[in-house]
Design the sequence.
């Protein structure tokens, strides 16, 4: 059951000052240093909004904490994908929005190749692994058709679940999170999931329907993993958004390097630049070495 | 409660002409002048026919009283008591008349409104002023407490009646309506029906306490009505309500606990994210501080509640949780560990295990953290949260394989619609899980007072 919560508003002059963000949650999740064998960086290159194809490893310059690295190009569209769909199935999605989401999900699944795998995570107050990673997309389609919308929104817990599933093998992992609301039910703290995102190769694309993402959980999650946040209207056709994400992801470059000349632990800034080519580069801003 | 509010958002305009009594829309001024104590007489009649806990005609009519009408009732009630008190001092009989605001009124008629006619008659025949005054106050307290019960029901069992707030009557307050993480509206009225009638009931109970009413009844009133507002997520209404409650009952551990719970809710991501995303009118601002500040406020309230009642287990569990969220994992552990094993209430024990697991996680002891998550899981085998947090624990320590294995184990399979499978799903209102019991107890206590 969904409740209507009433939060007090005051005339501006009476209101309490805004507080500072919590540092407590971050302190709750200790980080542990370890050696990093290889760092993978998923890179999108665009020029005037169009994807730039045909680049080689030599076209990329990668700096790890400012130190140039020897880069290998692992893939441009060839490696199989693990696509994890994390779909909001809370009360507010019921009705036409759910039908729209199912249609878009089916369209995306139709764009997968035989070697790709897909999974479906649904979330209301409960996070459900509705279909585990499998190359048999009929399982995901069936789970999508079977999913019902009710309850509140454990967005943060679902995002964590999707990231972890994406890490379950070494395939390129794409997590697509759809939500039409803000988190109302998670146990995990947003800071913890952002911290997990700093340690993962999973790329997160988020689709937020009708909610101004000022709060920024999804925006930050996408930024930290090198993905994107798409903000669409509440009645928007979701099919172009989801199919477009898959298409864009396939055309990203997967770079890899063994870190040299940098500390083995802590946060590492990653800078990706083009050599001799023009275009805008989108990649994760760095990584937390270790787990 | 929820349906009522949902209906309110969609259909109040249709209800308005049918349910608002003619004078109710006159928000800015007092009702038109009528016969002396006319408003009190009408109200007292409703009080006397109302069956507590029932939606009857009296409750429906009481629900239509807007604040000015309620102010008039209280004004007349206070004046009536003073008038009868003066009549007792002057040894007037019930048939005497006296002047009240330029009008002659019968002492007996006014005393009857308060249920004190017999007192006046007896005192005239056998004068004993101290005793007569005590009996007058007892009668007034009975009326006040029965009146509070009537208005509790006007708030709780009668569907909402929208009161008109005009542009000429700017409000300093409003409420943000939130559903499933989405802001569905902004209500620019000072008070909801619930807060209007709970607020009036509180004024009656405060007056009853001043007249020597039973000491336990006022805390019972404030505890029950606050719990209901917390249970129903009326956070905008309950904040000023609790501030008043603590002003009159500053050392009530339950009210202190509820204040802590309210600020803990404000600190939760569910509140913070919505408030940060809300598009507010330029002249309005929300009253919630940032997460850390709200947690610190909650911690202070919980600490005081526990100081006053060291056996207050639920306050202890919430306190431990908040200490952990503030990053003091050792204090969280030291708070939770001594009480955990003795907690009889299963959901509360579940919370204690989860939060103790979090404390050990924060202290870096993976084994102990896992043990407490497992204990939580054993209490509620269908609950998903223990598996999820155990996965998060292992992922934070680099065990990706176990982290995903636990996800597969904990989050696979269908989930029913019942919220009882996992108490975490109702944690944000768990502090008020006994609201219904408190309401019943309050009704019994006040109703028994009416029979005194």
Sequence:
């Amino acid at each position: 059951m969904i409740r209507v919560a009433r939060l007090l508003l005051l005339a501006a002059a009476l209101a309490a000052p805004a507080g500072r963000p919590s540092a407590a949650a971050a302190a709750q999740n200790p980080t542990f240093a370890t050696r990093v064998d290889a760092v993978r960086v998923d890179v999108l290159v665009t020029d005037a909004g169009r994807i730039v194809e045909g680049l080689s490893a030599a076209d990329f310059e990668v700096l790890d904490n400012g130190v140039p690295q020897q880069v290998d190009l692992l893939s441009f569209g060839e490696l199989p994908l693990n696509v994890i769909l994390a779909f909001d199935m809370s009360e507010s999605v019921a009705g036409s929005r759910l039908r729209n989401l199912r249609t878009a999900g089916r369209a995306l699944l139709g764009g997968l190749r035989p070697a790709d795998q897909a999974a479906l995570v649904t979330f209301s107050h409960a996070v459900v692994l509705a279909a585990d990673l499998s190359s048999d997309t009929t399982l995901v389609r069936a789970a999508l058709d079977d999913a019902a919308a009710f309850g509140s929104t454990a967005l943060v817990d679902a995002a964590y679940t999707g990231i972890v599933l994406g890490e379950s093998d070494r395939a390129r992992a794409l997590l697509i999170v759809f939500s039409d609301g803000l988190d109302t039910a998670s146990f995990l703290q947003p800071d913890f999931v952002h911290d997990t995102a700093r340690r993962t190769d999973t790329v997160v694309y988020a689709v937020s329907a009708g909610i101004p993402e000022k709060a920024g959980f999804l925006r930050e999650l996408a930024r930290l993993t090198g993905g994107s946040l798409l903000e669409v209207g509440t009645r928007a056709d979701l099919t172009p958004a989801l199919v477009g994400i898959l298409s864009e992801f396939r055309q990203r470059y997967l770079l890899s390097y063994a870190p040299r000349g940098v500390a083995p632990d802590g946060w590492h800034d990653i800078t990706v630049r083009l050599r001799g080519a023009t275009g805008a580069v989108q990649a994760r801003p760095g990584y937390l070495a270790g787990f | 409660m929820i349906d009522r509010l949902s209906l309110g958002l969609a259909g109040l305009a249709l209800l308005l002409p049918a349910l608002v009594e003619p004078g109710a829309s006159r928000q800015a001024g007092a009702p038109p002048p009528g016969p002396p104590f006319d408003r009190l007489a009408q109200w007292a009649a409703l009080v006397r026919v109302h069956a507590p806990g029932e939606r009857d005609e009296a409750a429906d009519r009481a629900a239509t009283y807007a604040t000015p009408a309620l102010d008039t009732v209280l004004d007349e009630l206070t004046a009536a008591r003073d008038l009868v008190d003066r009549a007792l001092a002057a040894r007037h009989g019930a048939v005497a008349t006296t002047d009240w605001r330029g009008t002659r009124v019968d002492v007996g008629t006014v005393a009857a409104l308060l249920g004190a006619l017999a007192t006046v008659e007896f005192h005239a025949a056998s004068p004993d002023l101290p005793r007569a005054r005590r009996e007058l106050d007892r009668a007034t307290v009975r009326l006040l407490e029965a009146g509070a019960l009537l208005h509790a029901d006007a708030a709780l069992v009668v569907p909402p009646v929208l009161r008109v707030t005009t542009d000429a009557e700017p409000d300093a307050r409003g409420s943000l309506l939130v559903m499933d993480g989405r802001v569905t509206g902004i209500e620019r009225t000072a008070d909801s029906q619930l807060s209007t009638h709970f607020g009036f009931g509180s004024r009656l109970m405060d007056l009853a306490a001043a007249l020597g009413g039973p000491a336990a009844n006022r805390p019972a009133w404030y505890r029950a009505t606050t719990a209901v507002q917390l249970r129903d997520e009326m956070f905008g209404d309950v904040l000023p309500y609790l501030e008043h409650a603590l002003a009159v009952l500053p050392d009530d551990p339950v009210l202190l606990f509820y204040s802590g719970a309210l600020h803990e809710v404000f600190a939760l991501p569910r509140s913070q994210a919505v408030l940060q995303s809300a598009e507010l009118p330029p002249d309005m601002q929300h009253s919630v501080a940032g997460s850390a500040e709200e947690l610190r406020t909650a911690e202070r309230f919980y600490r005081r509640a526990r100081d006053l009642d060291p056996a207050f287990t639920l306050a202890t569990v919430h306190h431990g949780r908040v200490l952990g969220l503030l990053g003091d994992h050792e204090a969280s552990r030291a708070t939770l560990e001594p009480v955990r094993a003795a907690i009889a209430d299963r959901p509360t024990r579940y919370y204690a295990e989860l939060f103790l697991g979090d404390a050990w996680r924060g202290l870096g002891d993976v084994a102990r953290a896992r043990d407490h998550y497992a204990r939580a899981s054993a209490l509620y085998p269908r609950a998903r949260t223990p598996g999820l947090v155990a996965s998060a624990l292992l992922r934070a320590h680099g065990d990706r394989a176990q982290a995903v294995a636990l996800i597969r184990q904990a989050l696979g399979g269908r989930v029913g619609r019942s919220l009882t499978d996992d108490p975490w799903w109702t944690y944000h209102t768990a502090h008020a899980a006994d609201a219904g019991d408190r309401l019943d107890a309050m009704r019994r206590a006040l109703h028994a007072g009416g029979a005194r």
Observations:
- Chain A has a mean pLDDT of 85.
- The CA atoms of residues 51 and 248 of chain A lie 8 Å apart.
- Chain A touches chain B through 79 residues (CB under 8 Å).
- The first helix of chain A runs from residue 24 to 28.
